[in-house]
User: Which sequence fits this backbone?
């Protein structure tokens, strides 16, 4: 549905206002309301939940990442009481992004793997909407996995960050650490 850009009519003192002008004003208020996804919000919903302390991962076990803080949280999408989840408050199309920061895995072995997946509406691997798997590098800088996607989400949808390493590790908080974010782009189509 394409909503026309609202055009607010102007009125002059002493001039009789006709019903069509008043009806147009009402329609434009409705259009403005629909432009804002059936609400009047003061700012675009946006969240970045991040780890401030590393989380231990058991080797070869798919785990959802817990976060300790939100650097941005304009729509109360992340709460400490549900530390591994982002809860979408307003339906729409969102740019969703994540980073997982793995430490150096030693000794280097090409059989090792580090994985990161963004999950929607569930914490199982089958709920993945995007992700990546990398073999750790042979140097001493660790591995960073970045995943992004654009997705249509209903109000009440949940987002999670899933991690897995072939060996037990503790996620690193350096070089940006691990985080999950969502930015509202536009209303659902």
Assistant:
């Amino acid at each position: 549905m394409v909503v026309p850009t609202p055009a607010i009519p102007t009125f002059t003192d002493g001039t009789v206002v006709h019903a069509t002008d008043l009806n147009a004003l009402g329609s434009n208020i409705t259009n403005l309301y629909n432009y804002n996804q059936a609400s009047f919000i003061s700012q675009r919903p946006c969240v970045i939940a991040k780890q401030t302390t590393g989380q231990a991962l058991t080797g070869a076990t798919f785990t959802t990442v817990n976060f300790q803080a939100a650097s941005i949280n304009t729509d109360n999408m992340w709460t400490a009481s549900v530390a591994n989840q982002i809860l979408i408050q307003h339906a729409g199309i969102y740019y969703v992004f994540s980073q997982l920061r793995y430490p150096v895995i030693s000794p280097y072995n090409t059989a090792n793997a580090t994985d990161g997946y963004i999950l929607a509406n569930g914490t199982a691997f089958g709920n993945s909407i995007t992700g990546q798997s990398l073999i750790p590098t042979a140097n001493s800088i660790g591995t960073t996995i970045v995943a992004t996607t654009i997705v249509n989400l209903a109000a009440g949808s949940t987002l999670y960050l899933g991690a897995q390493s072939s060996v037990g590790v503790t996620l690193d908080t350096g070089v940006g650490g691990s985080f999950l974010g969502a930015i509202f782009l536009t209303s659902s189509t």
